[in-house]
Amino acid sequence: PKFCYSYAQVKVEDIEYVDEVANVIRNMGYNVETNAEYLDSMKGQFAIVQAVLGGIGAVSLLVAAIGIANTMMMSIYERTKEIGVIKVLGCSLRNIKQMFLIEAGFIGLIGGVAGNILSMLLSFGINTVAGSMGSSMGFEGDISYIPIWLVLASLGFAIFVGMAAGYFPALRAMKLSPLAAIRNE
Q: In this predicted model, what pLDDT tens digit does every residue of 68-94 receive, in sequence order?
């Protein structure tokens, strides 16, 4: 005998008024769910995922920097005699430091190029899978997009990390005594 509505859908002209209208309806005693609240919830979840992935990236970056520093230290130990000969011949300390920093920078560059290639392949795979599944659901377009500025920035950052990791080994190479380095076997 009595007809009741289970829900009502209210549309607002401008997104700025969504919260205001939702509060008015709540004050009338009704439960309100808005797309803006859903969007805020999704942003929070994506922020958590982004923080976790950022943490994984930071640990990977630290491990890579330690690996580069270790490689550079081993390079100095293996080339001790060469460093001594270079010093005896009159090469400046600055040039020795630059030589090892450039080498460390190239190691970082190689790692950056490998990382970018892996990212591009992964992005292509995601877009391929999403494209085949998305077309059946009415979704078209790429989900993953890597802009060129990000590729270039990541290469620059990889070079910077390589050079930063190679800084202390380069200082060690500068401080080697030429005579002790030549006598070293």
A: 999 999 988 888 888 888 888 888 889
* Eight-state DSSP code of residue 30: -
Burial 102-141 (b: 16+ CB within 10 A, else e): ebbbebbbebbeebbeeeeeeeeeebeebeeeeeeeeeee
Identify the band that residue 107 occupies on the pLDDT scale cut at 50, 70 and 90.
very high
Question: Chain-wide mean pLDDT for the chain?
Answer: 87
Query: Among candidates 59, 172, 171, 155, which has minimal Cα distance to 105?
Result: 155
**Considering Cα of 146, then 148, then 152, then 155, what sign does the dihedral take?**
positive
**Tokens standing for residue 126:** 């995601």
Distance CA 45, CA 54 (A): 14
Question: DSSP of 94-163, one letter per residue?
Answer: HHHHHHHHHHHHHHHHHHHHHHHHHHHHHHHHHHHHHHHHHHHTT--S-S----HHHHHHHHHHHHHHHH
Please check whether residue 173 is in contact with residue 77, taking contact to mean a CB–CB distance below 8 angstroms. no
For residue 17, which amino acid is it?
Answer: Y
